[in-house]
Amino acid sequence: MRIRRSAAFAAPVLALTLFATACGGGGGEEDEGGNDTPTLADIANSDVNPQERDALQDGGTLNWAVSDFITQFNSYHTDGNLGVNLDILQALMPRAHNFDDTGAATPNTNYVEESSVSDDGSTVTFKLNPDAKWSNGEPITWEDYAATVETMSGRADGDFNMGTKAGYGDISKVEEGADEYEVVFTFDTPYAEWQGLFDVLYPAEYMEDPEKFNEGYLEDIPVTAGPFKLDEIDKTTQRVTVVRDDNWWGEPAKLDRITYATYESDAMAGVFVNDEIDAFYVGYDAPSYERAQEREDARIARAIDNGYRYIEMNAGRGPLADLDVRHAVMLGIDRSALAKASLEGVDWPSDPTVNRLIRSNQPSFQDNSGDLGQRDVERAAQLLDEAGWTQEAEGETRVNADGEKLSLTYVVPSGLQTTQSEAEITQQMLGEIGIEVKIESVPSTAFFTDYIYTGNFDMSSFVQVGTTPFAGESYENYGGPFNDDEEDWGNNNGRTSTPEINEKYAEMVRTTDLDRYYEIANEIDTLLWENGQGIPFFQRTGIWAVQEDLANFGANGMASVIYEDIGYMKE
Predict the structure, then answer these.
(1) Burial class (CB in 10 A: 0-12, 13-18, 19+), 274
(2) At what angle do helices 417-431 and 335-343 cross, to 10 degrees?
């Protein structure tokens, strides 16, 4: 998945403990045993133990367990496309807008005092905070925004190893407004998702120069502008530590420091119980969910999450290049059974209803899978027969006219039993229709870089996580090819799309009528099912384990993390 906005994660990083603390709307259902089970409508928008700043201690350390050790801290760089990167960078770097847990945007007044759009949608104006400064003492001005647009639009000269244009290419002109603290963006056509741009801002010099773009934030974060600043990147222990920046002009950070400590996912619950960490994303790993409950001061936070779990199919090589084969694989898998097996042991709805562009707490959320979302082994077998993959006897692997077996490699990261189980269930299901599935376990540290990003797989399962509530950011995962290059699939790990999908994304992000916007989003999701672009099987579990007196942190859902407000409650 190479591009920056929708970040990829291997299996929901561990599962936790305790019980959900909040729910809202909708009613539960009774399972076969007569017990109430939660539905997606029962899950809260956020669950962060919200507290006013004066109720918090001054000082303390948040030890945050993460699953990836970051080396490329330029989030616009193709190698900077991991969710952990934004968890670190948004404590240190500017972002133009914040989002609440419904997805509504407001200017992040630490950097942008006001933002507005013209009636015709062609002009967006940011009034910048004149107190905002980079850690090198330079003011944050319109030129920093202009440099980002120039590079990310593809207009800058040089070899920038970056992702797709993602809205920046729609900006035809950036100008200084009344002074250096006002920036005016002119769009060729209205761009409905403008508030999602500049989720991380870098100094102009690191965006204008290809060498600084590619290497300036490699294994370093040289210039910051946030409530925290970099203290240390420790390659040996795989920890990144940030500390309160006393030069920050906003409300001072309540915490002294945040340590992002890298652990294998199956180790996080243990170190949490041993009080070595204070928070980690649990996901749906049942053993970890149970283990985390052993800590007396644990709080299990649960909220709608901006992501979904799915099986990726690589159409860039082998049998899956054939749409009929991809459809057969989709029809050969029981998504409900896979979701129930994956979510067994955690308090989360095993509902396979997934929309790639819209979450269950957003308008017009619906299932667009149609017939392709239900298991149908007879139709799957028929498609495989028509595609030239025949089966001589029941139970045997299908072969083509050249005697080649219909065999697919399912790559899983080591240390994640949940992913291994998903692969084994898929192996059994597809075996019933004559598709051989070979499971290859690879080091978790190399899973994305050496396998998913490079296309060295046929199938795998992981999570797509949006960094804003906007549907258009998923274009980088499902559109393409990019940059007028038939080989450039950027962040699209499935390596397939259609002109209609690309055109629909372009129409959606230019649609300012909200009803029509979501209507197009559902049309796109339907097209993705029809083109066999992955197999979603549940909305990502927004389950976290956190120390109970930690406030303003946990399951944020759609909401932005306000890092300066994280802290521990007074006794």
Answers:
(1) exposed
(2) 150
For the stretch 410-460, pLDDT in tens is 999 987 788 899 999 999 999 999 999 999 999 987 898 899 999 999 999
| Summary mean pLDDT of the chain | 90
Domains of the chain: 94-207 (3.90.76.10), 307-540 (3.10.105.10)
Q: What are 347-376's pLDDT values in tens digits?
A: 898 899 999 999 999 989 999 999 999 999
Query: In this predicted model, what pLDDT tens digit does every residue of 185-238 receive, in sequence order?
Result: 999 999 999 999 999 999 999 999 999 999 999 999 999 999 999 999 999 999
The pTM (predicted TM-score) of the whole model is 0.83
pLDDT (0 to 100) of residue 67: 87
543 conformational bin, left if phi > 0, alpha if psi -120 to 50, beta if neither: beta
Burial per residue of 317-335, b for 16 or more beta-carbon CB atoms within 10 angstroms, e otherwise: eebbebebbbbbbbbbbbb
Helix or strand run (H / E) with residue 29: strand 29-30
From residue 122, give the alpha-carbon distance in Å to each of 96, 125, 190, 427. Answer: 19, 10, 5, 51
Average pLDDT over residues 170-183: 97
β-sheet bridge partners, residue 257: 61, 243
- Whose tokens are 């790990």? That residue is 493
Burial class (CB in 10 A: 0-12, 13-18, 19+), 303: buried
**Which phi and psi (to 5°) does residue 298 adopt?**
-85, 145
DSSP string, 490-544: TT-TT----HHHHHHHHHHHT---HHHHHHHHHHHHHHHHHTT--EEEEEPP-EE
Q: Which of 284, 342, 345, 267 is nearest to 311 (CA)?
A: 342
Token pair of 60, please? Answer: 């303390």
The pair of structure tokens assigned to 313 is 């199919």
Q: Hey, what amino acid is at 295?
A: R
Q: What residue type is 563 in one-letter code? A: Y
Contacts of 57-60 spanning 24+ positions with Cβ under 8 A: 57/254, 57/567, 57/568, 57/569, 57/570, 58/254, 58/567, 59/254, 59/255, 59/256, 60/254, 60/255, 60/256, 60/567, 60/568
Write down the H helix ranges in 278-376. 286-292, 323-332, 335-343
Q: What pLDDT score does 242 carry?
A: 98
Dist CA 387 CA 408 (whole Å) = 16
Count other C-beta atoms under 10 Å from residue 205's C-beta: 17
pLDDT at 37: 63
Question: What confidence category does residue 164 fall into, taking pLDDT thresholds of 50, 70 and 90?
Answer: low
Q: How confident is the model at residue 571 (pLDDT cuts 50, 70, 90)?
A: confident
